[in-house]
Amino acid sequence: MVLSLSVNGDRLTSIANPATPLVDVLREEFHLTGAKPVCREGFCGACMVLVDGSPAPSCLMPAALAQGCEIRTVEGLATNGALNPIQQALEASDAVQCGMCFPGMVVTLTHLLATTPVATRDDIRAALTGNICRCTGYERIVEATLLALAARRQEA
Amino acid sequence: MSDVSATMDFRRRDASDKLRGRTRYTIDRYLPGMLHAAVLRASVPSGRIVRLDTAGAARMPGVRAIVTAAEAPGKIGIGIADHPLFARDVIRYDGEPLAAIAADTLAQAHAAVAAIDVEIAPLPAVLTMADALQPAAPLVHPDWREHEILLEGGARKGNVAWEATVVRGDVDAAFARSDVEIVESAFRVGRQNHVAFEPRAVVASYEDGRFHIETSTQVPWTVRNATARLLGVAASRVRVTVPAVGGGFGLKFDLAIEPFAALLARASGRPVRLVNSREEEMLTCLFRENAEISIRSAVTRDGEIIGREAVVLMDCGAYGGEQIFLTTMTAHTLGGNYRLGAVRLVSRAVYTNTAPNGAFRCCNGVYNTFALERHTDEIAARIGMDPLAFRRRNVLGAGDLGATGQVFEGDVLRPMLDRMDTLRDAAAPARVLADGRLYGRATTVGTWFVFVGPSAATVNMNADGTATLVTSGVEIGSGSMMQSLPQIVAGTLGMNPGDVIVRAADTDAAGYDVGVGGGRTTVSLGAASLSAAQEVRTKLLKVASDMIEAAPEDLVMREGRIEIAGAPGSGRAIAEVAARAQAKIGPISGTGAFTGAGVSAMPGCVAGHFIDAIDIPVFAVHDCEVAVDRETGHVEVLSYRVVQDVGRALNPRAVHGQIQGGVVQGLGYALHEEVTIGSNGRVCQNGFETYRVPLALDVVPVEISLYEGAPSIGPLGTKGAGEVPILNVGAAVACAVAIATGKRVQELPLTPPRVLELLLDRKQDLALPHIADVWADNLVRPHGAPDRAA
Questions:
Q1: pLDDT at residue number B789
Q2: Inter-chain CB proximity B196 and A43 less than 8 Å
């Protein structure tokens, strides 16, 4: 059986077993190694991708269930080659350390920015419940998100 | 020297790709024709291998190579070589490797591992240090006398892998004085898992008769040398390169799974990828060791510490590893912070049939600071002195002696305490919480050091005006390789740090380096880089001097130009001078090297130590406010403040990032990161569900003040800043909880059940019967006695 997936706007086919976790198909067949399989149990959030616009851990999603969905990975979030607003804010805030959690962080926060333009500090912390970072102690990530939200309001 | 680019909030060049998901860590490397490997691990803590037959596994589909103990004859270790790659005949911990297999797919490798025919006869196990120290305890290494000794001086016997002692002054006389209070405390801490997000991972190949190991490590040269030793080949036949590393924290400060992949690559002739599963990482991660501490002090009524003695037991697990070295550190952590009259300390690394422990950010320092600071509060309470006043009276200052008799330079801790007073007083005063929770606040001090040691650097000046920095340094996430090192080179050469190219670590390209850890990157690699850049500068100025017709000493390098001092815009662009030099005398480069100065201790004070004194002390003052829920035992951290001795902050923003991150890791250790070992000898916490790391909702923004100006031999006055932030978090939280509850906090982590036990007075005072009451009775060999163990 051949799986047909829509990833970052591209139609891609996979010969993987339908039960293969989406994260493995993305990484090993499509060479999209941005999503990181850190815990493989849905706790850490480093493999988060957007499935029809909503963040989901790709380690828990069988590849076959991703058929018919629009999958967007961290590699597909830059707009016209430039960093998107949350990526820009995270870079400007010197938030990145080892970087392993950031693909998932960026996915979750891109969604937050799009859906909760009035998010408070506590909203952001709550939104990050499913994204663990071992390096930064989160503060810079929260600050960068507030910065991106403020910039967005200024533009609006 | 133009210092402008040496001190700035320079951005990381690796952030953009990391944010786009483009960075290829070791786990993201997939080579053409690559095989996948898996390791068979023992599932008993102690046993004898009766049969290990791989014939059936070899016939399984896709299998290309199988390796076992026969292929790895050597043993490695620190101080003593006690650790083979695979268990040979005897199994010493649950999870110990028995064989490794490479196959076309990972599923095939796992299937083949399961097909290995293995029979193990269980043997009695010792799972705790208390068990291991019983007189008739089974020995984890019955052959301990046969281990090759790599460093002389450590006392050893049976399950005591290594013993280090410090004796300075007449401790018995101090305790016998009639005008002192004797205060005695006992503490116990569990293990901590690093949970680096990138597991240990390697891709190895075998090319032209040499191993090429691409790996996620902090120590490329250790991997090179230790792999060679285990495999019984010349170290020059191993090349190690390191891409971006997805988190280290000390986990990757030792050899890991590299030799398995290397052996399989040689056997199969194909590149081999081996990545630890998260479960393997959770069960065999070279944890921060569990430890038990007994400390006793003789203190006068007016707060002078006349005498101190302590016994520290550190669980090294089945093999000595880092804990052998860490026995040294007790002198500088538990024996740190305060002026002591007379002192004696013994630190014992104890073998147990459990997964080996290793290095973790401020190894040994975190729990010894917890013990020392809680003990300090118990002393202050006993003599009726304010804990802060007691600290101010006793902290190490200029000319004071450390535990091993080294003389400290400069008054650092006292002004740092003053700085903390200012921060604390500017914030809200101590409060009574309206919700009925108990409130506590504590200020603690800590002493750490920079693990200096050898580093090498080369700077190649390019004719386009850029420079290439070649070292064996690894970017593990702290930013030192991306920020401070290019800043140091650029500052020396009057360039933009963005024009300094940083070569990723390659043992074929750069000279020896101890590794990235111990707060040494900016200091040791920085000093080597500074000296290499200075050589380039001297050569460039000589060439420029002819071009500009001015003496070299009248020239300055700034903003990409070499100019006559005081005449901006004069002279030539660096690129012009570099191009001229290349044409006339050949390309310009410089080399630099660094190692520790070797501060002296008092003769006869130490035995079994790897270093006698600390070249660069680093101090920290932390302040913490907590609220404790009487009903649930839950501890909430309300505020956290840090004054950190950084020598000089080259990139203050980056240092702040390290402090926030290090404090949060410490909060996990203090409050909820708990490792327990079951009766089967296996670590119980095998994933994120059971091992609870801090989440965004758990943490507070840390208020930070960088204390600059303390003496340091580091380049430009720097000290390591990334390791130390975790140092006194356990201490500060524990002291605050003890103050809030009025109970004796003796253990970490302070999980709700443990705190509730304290609140309900169901917690018995901690007893450590395997620590003898008479200090000298704890020693396998009297301090200073000659080695007759063998």
A1: 46
A2: no
Whether B19 and A87 lie within 8 Å, measured CB to CB: yes
SS3 of B162-208? EEEEEEECCHHHHHHCCCEEEEEEEEEECEECCCCCCCCEEEEEEEC
Measure the CA–CA gap between B714 and B531, rounded to whole angstroms.
12
The reply to whether residue B661 touches residue A137, judged by beta carbons under 8 angstroms, is yes
Among B9, B20, B27, the residue with its CB nearest the CB of A87 is B20
Q: Which residue of A78, A124, A134 is in closest CB contact with B196?
A: A134
Detail the DSSP E strand segments found in B7-159. 35-41, 47-53, 63-68, 75-76, 80-81, 83-84, 90-91, 97-103, 117-122, 148-149, 155-157
Pairing assessment for the beta strands B210-215 and B238-241 based on DSSP bridges = parallel
What are B749's two structure tokens?
């982590």
Geometric angle at alpha carbon A50, from A47 and A55, rounded to 5°: 70
Query: Above 0.95 for ipTM, yes or no?
Result: yes
Closest CA to B247 of A74, A112, A135: A135
Task: Give the Cα separation of B611 and B303 in Å (integer).
Answer: 30
DSSP secondary structure, B309-357, as one string: EEEEEEEEETS-HHHHHHTTTHHHHTT-SB--SEEEEEEEEEE-SS---
Q: Which of B718, B224, B288, B213 is nearest to B480 (CA)?
A: B718
Q: Considering only the beta carbons, identify the residue of A27, A36, A97 that sits closest to B479.
A: A97
What is the structure's pLDDT at A100?
98
The series of mean pLDDT values per 10 residues for chain B, 790 residues long, is 75 97 97 97 98 98 98 97 97 98 98 98 98 97 97 95 97 98 98 98 98 98 98 98 98 98 98 98 97 98 98 98 98 98 98 98 98 98 98 98 96 98 85 92 97 97 98 97 97 97 97 96 97 98 96 96 93 97 97 91 94 95 98 98 98 98 98 98 97 97 98 96 98 98 98 98 96 97 75
Neighbours of B351 (CB within 10 A): 30
Residues of B in contact with A34 (CB under 8 A): 20-22
Which helix (H) or strand (E) segment holds residue B79: the answer is: none
**Residue B384 token pair:** 């009726």
Chain B residue numbers with beta carbons less than 8 Å from the beta carbon of A74 are: 19-21
C-alpha distance from residue B625 to each of B97, B372, B746 (Å): 45, 19, 19
| pLDDT for A74 | 98
Compare CB distances from B197 to A33, A46, A95 and report the shortest one's residue.
Answer: A46
What would the pLDDT profile of B41-58 be if each residue is shown by its tens digit? Answer: 999 999 999 999 999 999
**Is there a contact between B699 and A41 if contact means CB atoms under 8 Å apart?**
no
Task: Give the pLDDT band (50/70/90) at residue A155.
Answer: confident
- Give the number of beta-carbon pairs within 8 Å between A and B: 160
**Chain A residue nearest residue B697, CA to CA:** A125
Q: Which residues of B touch A134 (CB under 8 A)?
A: 194-197, 247, 249, 665, 693
Q: Which of B79, B73, B201 is nearest to B148 (CA)?
A: B79
Q: What is the separation of C-alpha B527 from the centre of its chain, rounded to a whole number of angstroms?
A: 20
Q: What is d(CA B642, CA B706) in angstroms, rounded to the nearest whole number?
A: 8
Residue labelled with tokens 């932030």: B725
DSSP codes joined into one string, B116-166: -EEEEEE-----SHHHHTSTTPPPS-TTGGGSEESSTT-EEETTEEEEEEE
Q: Nearest-CA neighbor of A71 among A3, A9, A1?
A: A9
Q: Tell me how far the alpha carbon of residue B271 is from its chain's centroid.
A: 31
Q: What is the Cα–Cα distance from B520 to B481, expressed in whole angstroms?
A: 11
pTM passes above 0.95: yes
Assess contact for B690 and B684: CB atoms under 8 A: yes
Q: Rounded to 5 degrees, what are φ and ψ at B501? A: -80, 135
* pLDDT confidence of residue B3: 62
